[in-house]
Amino acid sequence: MHALQYELTLPADYDMGIVRDRVARVGHLLDDWDGLGLKTYLLRERGVHGSPVNQYAPFYLWNTMEGMNRFLWGGPFQGLVDDFGRPEARQWSGLAFEEGSAVGSPAAWAVRRREPVPAGVELSGVMEDAVRETGRVAAEDGAVLAAAAVDTRRWELVHFSLWEHDAPKAEGEVFEVLHMSAPGRDRLPRGRQW
Question: CATH second-level architecture of 2-187?
Fold first, then answer.
């Protein structure tokens, strides 16, 4: 499993209806994309759930690097680049994935928490903690799924979860889920990824 996310931070007075319309128009393009586990089309609006910004920030879990590369180097990503410019696309290696207690329910909200891997610690212990946290979050009432991944360039963990209602039981930045494409969700490996 491999995680990918980019963020488009938009002006405070930006009409977020433009983003909603765009997702309604093109969201289906990845509904059957080979190699994709899932893509969530995420939106934060300034002042909603404590967000200080307007932001469009899709989050992906990939089953194959080939699928991700086809998307980035000639797929629908070019349309986003043409419309908004080329964003920094963050990538993390998968640590854990679990279906949630509300598996099968539509996801209404996503929570993302990024945190540094502390210096001077045993890496295996930190990664095992992230795996346990993924399982704990997935077991919470209303959790659709939970995942954890690590960026070894920045030594940063990302915890990601989807929720069926507007009271997510995880800490972090809250995003509205506008659409989810999940052609390979059933093939995402469960549990610890090493």
Answer: 2-Layer Sandwich (3.30)
Environment class of 27 (CB within 10 Å of its CB; exposed 0-12, middle 13-18, buried 19+): middle
Backbone angles phi, psi at 43, to 5 degrees: -140, 135
**Predicted model pTM:** 0.95
Structural tokens at position 167: 């009271």
d(CA 120, CA 93): 21
The DSSP code sequence of 168-188 is -SS-SEEEEEEEEE-TTGGGS
Domain segments of the chain as ranges? 2-187
Structure tokens at 145: 């799924």
Buried b / exposed e over 106-117, threshold 16 CB at 10 Å, is ebebbbbbbeeb
- In terms of Cβ atoms closer than 10 Å to its own Cβ (0-12, 13-18, 19+), residue 166 is exposed
**Dihedral pair phi/psi, residue 150, rounded to 5°:** -135, 140
- The total of other beta-carbon atoms located within 10 Å of residue 11's CB is 9
Q: Which helix (H) or strand (E) holds 8?
A: strand 8-10
Q: Give 36-55 pLDDT, tens digit per residue.
A: 999 999 999 999 989 999 99
